[in-house]
Design brief:
3 domains; alpha/beta; UDP-N-acetylmuramoyl-L-alanine:D-glutamate ligase; six-stranded mixed beta sheet; Protein-Tyrosine Phosphatase, Chain A; ligase; Rossmann fold; 20 strands; 17 helices
């Protein structure tokens, strides 16, 4: 069996290693440059590879192709593979067939990283032999090749879900859905929604689907479509027979006749959206029979996620917050919603078809100045030019942070929450967040 891997990053190299171990004839091809550390791994494992090109005769003879999530379907080589009816799958689909482990799949436009990290923290604290993979850390395929976990918590993007055929998580979480990555879905929101719901398409009556009952897009889909999985909703507004609910200042969870309660003020995470993330993760912990005392302790000592509403420093009584992971409008909505002081907002980057109108009331109420950090800021300026008194355009992070310092007074907050992808000025959102933190420390 010939396995061709497109993309020489974390998921590609992990898949190549697993494929080799399972006896496939493996070839890896990357149209860009493969990083030196990955080249070394490929050489040590005696895996054939090429970079900065796709040689068709070495690719189109595949029995199966694993495509890295960053490669769009419209790329020429992918179209040729599909024309030849060669299966093109994701790393998750490839690796899942080689493990007996229970998987917990977590997707959503926002909150999935926090929910994934928190779920992993709860299960690990509960003593389970658990791995963390997907969009985070070491790739799932690589871990299936090298490790022996009983349970995996997987953060899954829509791109990874596009490439599944038979994969099913035992427990699936959909945190929410808002327009994102529409450039990859022909600018059709319904295509993106369908992609997210692939997480539950293979689930059976023995599996569980955990979702936000306050999210209109999700509840509409569930009204019109069927999943066999047992439904576990969570909500800030309404109580369900089974699921989670915030009642005044108490989180109440009812799963399989078991009740769990905890005061929200004793939780480490703040903000309404984090209450939802906590209910989703706690649902998993209860389904996996983690002790209530362990769940309470874990929810109160969880550290949070880098680049997600991360408090960096307070300088001259001004709080600097790194929310670089906010790559869409919905994520920035949560960030602005949780601000309780006058805010200087650093925004901008590569716009993925954003509609800024839903931020309007929050910007009027909370934002005193906007700093546009991007190559093309026209849409942001058109949206908010008449709403805030001060708008400044900059092209480096250090300029953004220095400008923000000049615009603040005691008691204000400086919030980096870009609502856009980072690829115009930065390598990725992590690079953008780290540059922000460095610039703040240099003040």
């Amino acid at each position: 069996m010939r396995l061709v891997v497109l993309g020489g990053g974390e998921s590609g190299v992990g898949t190549a290693i697993l494929g080799k171990k399972k006896g496939y004839d493996v070839f890896l091809s990357d149209f860009g440059k493969i990083k030196e550390n990955y080249k070394e791994v490929l050489l040590i494992n005696e895996i054939d590879w090429e970079d900065e090109k796709h040689t068709e005769e070495l690719i189109l003879n595949a029995d199966v192709v694993m495509k890295s999530p960053g490669i769009p379907d419209k790329v020429a080589i992918v179209k040729k593979l599909k024309d030849k009816q060669i299966p093109v799958i994701s790393e998750i689909e490839f690796a899942a067939q080689f493990t007996e482990a229970i998987t917990i799949g977590i997707t959503g436009s926002n909150g999935k990283t926090t929910t994934t990290m928190l779920t992993y923290h709860l299960l690990k604290s509960g003593g389970l032999n658990v791995g963390l993979a997907g969009n985070i850390g070491k790739s799932f395929a690589w871990q299936v090749a090298d490790e022996d976990f009983d349970v995996y918590v997987l953060e899954l993007s829509s791109f990874q879900l596009d490439g599944i055929i038979n994969y099913k998580p035992h427990i699936a979480i959909l945190t929410n859905i808002s327009p994102d990555h529409l450039d990859r879905y022909e600018y059709k929101y319904e295509n993106y929604i369908a992609s997210k719901f692939r997480i539950t398409m293979n689930q059976t009556e023995d599996d569980y689907f955990i979702y936000d009952a306050d999210d209109e897009t999700t509840t509409n889909w569930l009204k019109n479509n069927k999943t066999k999985a047992q439904l576990i909703p969570f909500s800030l507004k309404q109580k369900h027979q089974m699921g989670g609910f915030i009642n005044n200042d108490t989180m109440e969870m009812y799963i399989n006749e078991e009740e769990f309660t905890m005061e929200t003020k004793t939780m480490a995470l703040e903000g309404k959206h984090n209450m939802k993330n906590a209910m989703a993760a706690t649902s998993v912990a209860q389904l996996m029979r983690i002790r209530k005392q362990t769940i309470r302790e874990s929810l109160s000592n969880f550290q949070g996620v880098e680049h997600r509403l991360e408090r960096v420093l307070k300088i001259q009584n001004v709080q600097y917050i790194n929310d670089s992971k906010a790559t869409n409008v919905n994520a920035t909505f949560f960030a602005l919603d949780s601000m309780s002081t006058p805010t200087v907002w650093i925004v901008g980057g590569v716009d993925k078809g954003n509609d800024y109108s839903e931020l309007m009331s929050l910007v009027r109420e909370k934002v005193k100045a906007i700093i546009c950090l991007g190559v093309d800021n026209k849409k942001i300026i058109d949206a908010f030019g008449n709403v805030v008194d001060v708008m400044v355009e900059v092209t480096t992070m250090s300029d953004a942070v220095r400008t923000a310092q000049h615009l603040t007074e005691k008691g204000d907050t400086v919030l980096l929450s870009p609502a856009c992808a980072s690829f115009d000025l930065f390598e990725n959102y992590e690079d953008r967040g780290r540059q922000f933190k460095q610039a703040v420390r240099n003040l």
